[in-house]
Design a protein that fits this description.
Structural class: alpha+beta
CATH architecture of the largest domain: Orthogonal Bundle
Number of helices: 8
Bound molecules: iron/sulfur cluster, FE3-S4 cluster, FE2/S2 (inorganic) cluster
Length: about 230
């Protein structure tokens, strides 16, 4: 089948604003958007720029706006999109070139919530044990691949770039509810700040956008509830 791709292009050396460019591409219905982008880059226009790595929905590098929704290009089949496909960079970040956005502020927020196990007590001879029930409390949020599809689909983030955003909260949740971790209060204090969880208006775009099917809004609500109960 032939598909027309409308791709938002931006060259920082020559463009002041982004512009759409069209490409007609022969693809199989079961090709993914990433396959088509590769076809365009390798056979039509080598200047097209986009991030990708694993091509299997694991590395989180090819989040982009596809027909108006944030998705991973390597997980969306052409047959599910039709014969006109619009591809744009994720919203809310500075565009570096074409579909590549500046992820540095996103990872700054990720680092701000202390995304690692903190426990200064003497470690046991073997591993730090945890019950199955305790492990399940944060199982969902371990699946995050830091693609930023959630944060860049959140209207609150679009109007207030200070908001830590759902991805940072999901990764805080992963440690706040880990029974082996001792720094939940520190993370809750960070998320109680004016850029933290209270900015969330329960809009659910983040949950809709997550390619890992994490219940992002529920994770945010878990953190809000923990804050209320802990009275940080
Ligand atoms: Fe991506 Fe989902 Fe993680 Fe958000 S929560 S960064 S959408 S994997
Ligand atoms: Fe935004 Fe998700 Fe909350 S879209 S407002 S972070 S529920
Ligand atoms: Fe790795 Fe799509 S290329 S998630």
């Amino acid at each position: 089948m032939q598909v027309t791709f409308r791709i938002k292009r931006f060259n920082p050396d020559t463009d002041r604003v982004g512009r759409f460019q069209e490409y007609k591409v022969d693809v199989d219905p079961t090709d993914r958007v990433l396959d088509a982008l590769n076809e365009i880059k390798w056979r039509h226009d080598g200047t097209l720029s986009y991030r990708r790595s694993c091509a299997h929905g694991i590395c989180g590098s090819d989040g982009m706006l596809i027909n108006g929704r944030n998705r991973l290009a390597c997980k969306v089949l052409i047959r599910d999109l039709g014969t006109r496909i619009t591809v744009e960079p994720m919203r809310g970040f500075k565009v570096i070139k074409d579909l590549i956005v500046d992820m540095a502020p996103f990872f700054d927020k990720y680092r701000a919530i202390l995304p690692y196990l903190i426990n200064d007590s003497q470690p046991p001879v073997a591993e730090r044990l945890q019950s199955i029930a305790d492990r399940e409390k944060f199982d969902d949020t371990t699946k995050c691949i830091l693609c930023a599809c959630c944060t860049t689909s959140c209207p609150v983030f679009w109007v207030n770039g200070e908001y830590l955003g759902p991805a940072a909260i999901v990764n805080a949740h992963r440690f706040i509810f880990d029974s082996r971790d001792d720094a939940a209060a520190d993370r809750l204090a960070i998320l109680n700040d004016r850029a933290g969880v209270w900015r969330c208006r329960t809009i659910f775009n983040c949950t809709d956008a997550c390619p890992r099917e994490i219940d992002v809004t529920k994770a945010i609500e878990d953190v809000k509830r923990a804050l209320v109960l802990s009275r940080v």
